[in-house]
C-alpha cells in the first residue's frame, strides 16, 4: 500500500536556482536516510552530479528557446513522495517501484533520481524529476487533477507487485479542495447510461434472439425506447430514468464490439458477443464492501454479474493453459513477474548506457562552445568584471567539464562519430526491449489478476480486509 504526494520546487527568497536544486536533492540523497546511498537509482543522470545536470539542462533550455520565467513562477523540479505501509515491502523493492512510477509518470522524457529512505518505520521514496525535458526544448506541464492521476498510477503499480492499496481513502477533506477519496467516490458513482446500455445489449444477446426485430423487442422489454435513424442506424433511450438523449448503437459511442454490424453478426452466430476482448481480466468486485460503503441494489446486481464474468474468464484461462492445480498457477504468476522484472532491468541498463552516451555528446558540444569564453577569462586573470558579464557561459563550461569527468571516469573521450553510432545502436536495442517489456507487463498483469480472482473464489483471501490508511 502506498500513498503519494506531488510537490513543486521553486527558488526561495534570497536563494539562487543552483542552491534551490542542490538543497532539495541533497535532502533526498542524505546518506543517513539511504543507507550510505545504497538505495538510490537514477534515469538519464548521475546521482553524484544530478544537480549540475539539472542546472545544465535549464541553461540549455534558456539558450535554445529564449524563454524566461519570473522567479516565483519558475518550477525547477518536481518531487514525488511515495510512502509504503510498514513491513509490507523491502527498501530494494520500494526503490524499484519508485523508479517504475517515475518512468511511467514522466514517460521517459525527464531525467529523475529515486531515493529510498529507511530512517522511518514506513519505507518511503523521494523522487525528483527535472522540470526541463531531456531535449531541453520543453518543460513538464502540470495539470488539474495531476495528484489524483499520480495516485491511480501508484495504485496500479502496487497491484502489479502484489501490494495492497488504500481501498477507502479518507472520505472528507476539511479544506475547500477535494482529496483523493472524494474524487474517487465521485468518479465511481452510478453506472452511466452507456454502461447500462452495454449491459442491456449483452443480456438481450444472451437470450439468443432469432433476428434483429426480436433483439429490439428484448431491448424494449428491458425498458429502452428504440428509434431507427436515417441511414439504417438504431438509437436507444432508457425510459423513466431521466435519460434525455438517445444513444446511438455504434462502436464510436459504446466501444469496440457494440456496432450495429457486430450485433447483427452476434445474432447470426458469426461472431462472439460484443464487448468481449479475449481474456481482458479485471479484479473481482468486493460486493459486500461496496454495499457497506453505500452502493445501492443496482450496483449489487451489476457487481454480481461482473464477478461471475471475471471468474468464468479466469477459469477459461486456467483450462486453456492446462493449469491443473493451484501451485502451477502460482508458479506461472511468479515466472511472469520474474520475466517482467528481468526485462525491466535490461531496459534500465540500456537506458543507463543511453544516458551516458547522450550526456557525453551534450557535454562535449557545450564544452566546445564555452571553452573560448573560459580561455578569455583566464587571459583577463580571472577578472571579476569579465565574470559578471559572462557568468552564465562560465557556469555552463564548469557544468560541462564536471559532467565529462563524471561520465568518463578517467577513460579517454571517444570521437563524436563513435558516440553517435553507439547512440543509434542503443536506440534500436531499447526499441526492441520495450516491445518485450510491454508484452511481459501485460502477461504479468493478466496472470496476477487471474490468481487474485481465483484466490477470492477459493477463499484463500478475504476481499475488503486490506489495511486502510487515512491520507
Structure description:
Residues 175-189, 272-280 and 462-471 have low confidence and may be disordered. The strands form 2 sheets. This protein has a 5-stranded antiparallel sheet, sandwiched between helices. The N and C termini lie close together (12 Å). The protein is elongated. It has 15 helices and 8 strands. It is 54% helix and 10% strand. The protein has 471 residues and is of the alpha+beta class. The chain has 3 domains: 2-166, BirA Bifunctional Protein, domain 2 (2-Layer Sandwich), CATH 3.30.930.30; 193-320, no CATH class; 328-447, no CATH class.
**CATH topology description of the largest domain:** BirA Bifunctional Protein, domain 2
Fraction of residues in helix: 40-55%
Find the count of extended strands (DSSP E, 2+ residues): 8
Rg from C-alpha positions? 28 Å
Pairing-aware structural class of the strands and helices? alpha+beta
How many DSSP H or I helices?
15
SSE string, helix = H, strand = E? EHEHEHEEHHHHEEEHHHHHHHH
Shape: elongated
CATH architecture field of the largest domain: 2-Layer Sandwich
Number of domains: 3
CATH class of the largest domain: Alpha Beta
Outline the secondary-structure elements:
Elements: E1 2-9, H1 17-28, E2 40-43, H2 50-65, E3 77-84, H3 91-106, E4 112-117, E5 124-130, H4 146-160, H5 180-187, H6 193-206, H7 212-221, E6 224-228, E7 234-238, E8 247-248, H8 251-254, H9 260-267, H10 287-292, H11 297-320, H12 326-379, H13 384-389, H14 391-408, H15 416-458
Antiparallel strand pairs: 1-3, 2-4, 3-5, 4-5, 6-7, 7-8
Helix pairs in contact: 1-2, 2-14, 3-4, 11-15, 12-14, 12-15
Amino acid at each position: 500500500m502506498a500513498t503519494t504526494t506531488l510537490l513543486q520546487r521553486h527558488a526561495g527568497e534570497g536563494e539562487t536556482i543552483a542552491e534551490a536544486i542542490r538543497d532539495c536533492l541533497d535532502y533526498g540523497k542524505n546518506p543517513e536516510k539511504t543507507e550510505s546511498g545504497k538505495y538510490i537509482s537514477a534515469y538519464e543522470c548521475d546521482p553524484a552530479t544530478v544537480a549540475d545536470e539539472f542546472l545544465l539542462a535549464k541553461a540549455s533550455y534558456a539558450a535554445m528557446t529564449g524563454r524566461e520565467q519570473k522567479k516565483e513562477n519558475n518550477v525547477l523540479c518536481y518531487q514525488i513522495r511515495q510512502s509504503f505501509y510498514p513491513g509490507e515491502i523491502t527498501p530494494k523493492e520500494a526503490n524499484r517501484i519508485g523508479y517504475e512510477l517515475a518512468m511511467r509518470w514522466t514517460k521517459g522524457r525527464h531525467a529523475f533520481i529515486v531515493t529510498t529512505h529507511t530512517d522511518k518505520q514506513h519505507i518511503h521514496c523521494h523522487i525528483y524529476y527535472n522540470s526541463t525535458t531531456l531535449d531541453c526544448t520543453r518543460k513538464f506541464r502540470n495539470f488539474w487533477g495531476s495528484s489524483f492521476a499520480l495516485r491511480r498510477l501508484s495504485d496500479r503499480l502496487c497491484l502489479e507487485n502484489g501490494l495492497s492499496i488504500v481501498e477507502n481513502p479518507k472520505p472528507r477533506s476539511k479544506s475547500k479542495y477535494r482529496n483523493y477519496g472524494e474524487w474517487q467516490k465521485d468518479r465511481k458513482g452510478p453506472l452511466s447510461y452507456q454502461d447500462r446500455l452495454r449491459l442491456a445489449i449483452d443480456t438481450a444477446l444472451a437470450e439468443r434472439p432469432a433476428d434483429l426485430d426480436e433483439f429490439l423487442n428484448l431491448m424494449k422489454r428491458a425498458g429502452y425506447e428504440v428509434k431507427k435513424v436515417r441511414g439504417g442506424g438504431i438509437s436507444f433511450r432508457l425510459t423513466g430514468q431521466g435519460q434525455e438523449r438517445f444513444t446511438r448503437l455504434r462502436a464510436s459511442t459504446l466501444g469496440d464490439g457494440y456496432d450495429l454490424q457486430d450485433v447483427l453478426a452476434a445474432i447470426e452466430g458469426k461472431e462472439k458477443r460484443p464487448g468481449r476482448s479475449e481474456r481482458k481480466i479485471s479484479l473481482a468486485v468486493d460486493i459486500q464492501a461496496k454495499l457497506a460503503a453505500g452502493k445501492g441494489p443496482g450496483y449489487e446486481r451489476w457487481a454480481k454479474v461482473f464477478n461471475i464474468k471475471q471468474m468464468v474468464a479466469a477459469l477459461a484461462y486456467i483450462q486453456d493453459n492446462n493449469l491443473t492445480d493451484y501451485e502451477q498457477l502460482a508458479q506461472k504468476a511468479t515466472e511472469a513477474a520474474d520475466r517482467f522484472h528481468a526485462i525491466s532491468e535490461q531496459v534500465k541498463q540500456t537506458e543507463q548506457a543511453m544516458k551516458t552516451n547522450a550526456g557525453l555528446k551534450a557535454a562535449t558540444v557545450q564544452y566546445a562552445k564555452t571553452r573560448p569564453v573560459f580561455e578569455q577569462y583566464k587571459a583577463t586573470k580571472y577578472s571579476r568584471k569579465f565574470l559578471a558579464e559572462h557568468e552564465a557561459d562560465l557556469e555552463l563550461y564548469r557544468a560541462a567539464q564536471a559532467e565529462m569527468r563524471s561520465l568518463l571516469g578517467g577513460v579517454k573521450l571517444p570521437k563524436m562519430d563513435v558516440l553517435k553510432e553507439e547512440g543509434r545502436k542503443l536506440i534500436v536495442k531499447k526499441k526492441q526491449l520495450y516491445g518485450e517489456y510491454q508484452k511481459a507487463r501485460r502477461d504479468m498483469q493478466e496472470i496476477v489478476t487471474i490468481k487474485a480472482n481465483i484466490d477470492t473464489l477459493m477463499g484463500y483471501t478475504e476481499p475488503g480486509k486490506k489495511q486502510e490508511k487515512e491520507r
